Automatic annotation (TrEMBL):
Domain of life: Eukaryota
Protein name, UniProt field: Ubiquitin 3 binding protein But2 C-terminal domain-containing protein
Region forming the signal peptide: 1-17
Keywords: Signal
């Protein structure tokens, strides 16, 4: 079975933005992903337990994937792994829609305090178009580049939210697509995914969804252009 696509940009309907850009057919655009690991606050006594889910974690991590982690340490200290997502949006696009889905039933989740815990809510941050860099696929994006940038590069800290169940999907939101650069080349739209800090609760969490780069029929997190 093909793996679920964790972050995917799918063109629903794309129109020309200028006379020099012809209308485009519907299509799918795949993302670039970077993990953003927050600074380690110190020694941790609490660690994730061995995987108990029916989907082996090793299988998920052997493929491209989105992974969110919250590791609870001592004295209330914690460390988080966020997910940076970049889409190259074709020049001439108009409107974008972000959706998350697990059509291949591959979502993995574990919580140290409760093996039967409900899947956590996700918070989606949206970056200022083009504020980070023109093409992050050529650079290693770090936690400090995004979360501690001066001036800030995050446009909306709570742009969208989702709670994904296995085999289900959820539309997160839509907005105008970013402009092409000065040469008429593809623009970029970027997001950061994290656990919703207001609904995280106690203990450590590990959330993983694999990403296909070839099969839009088994989506994970995808981005649609209209």
């Amino acid at each position: 079975m093909s793996l679920s696509i964790t972050v995917l940009l799918s063109a629903l309907a794309i129109v020309a933005a200028s006379p020099t850009l012809p209308p485009r057919a519907c299509g799918t655009v795949y993302p670039t992903l970077f993990s953003l690991l927050s600074p380690e606050p110190g020694f941790f006594n609490s660690v994730m337990q061995p995987a108990k889910a029916d989907t082996p974690l090793r299988t998920l991590l052997d493929s491209p994937h989105v992974r969110l982690q919250h590791i609870q340490g001592t004295e209330g200290k914690s460390q988080d792994n966020l997910q940076f997502v970049d889409f190259k949006v074709p020049a001439g696009s108009n409107t974008c829609q972000l959706e998350i889905a697990d059509h291949a039933d591959m979502l993995y989740f574990e919580k140290t305090t409760d093996n039967n815990a409900a899947l956590p809510a996700l918070n989606i941050m949206k970056l200022i178009p083009g504020a980070l860099c023109e093409d992050p696929s050529t650079e290693n994006v770090t936690y400090a580049d995004v979360m501690d940038a001066t001036p800030p590069v995050i446009q909306y800290y709570h742009w969208g939210a989702a709670t994904l169940q296995r085999g289900q999907s959820s539309i997160i939101g839509s907005f105008p697509s970013p402009p092409a650069n000065g040469n008429g080349e593809d623009g970029h739209v970027q997001f950061v995914l994290q656990f919703d800090p207001d609904q995280l609760g106690a203990g450590s969490c590990d959330w993983v969804l694999p990403q296909s780069t070839t099969d839009p029929g088994v989506l994970g997190l995808w981005f649609g252009l209209a």
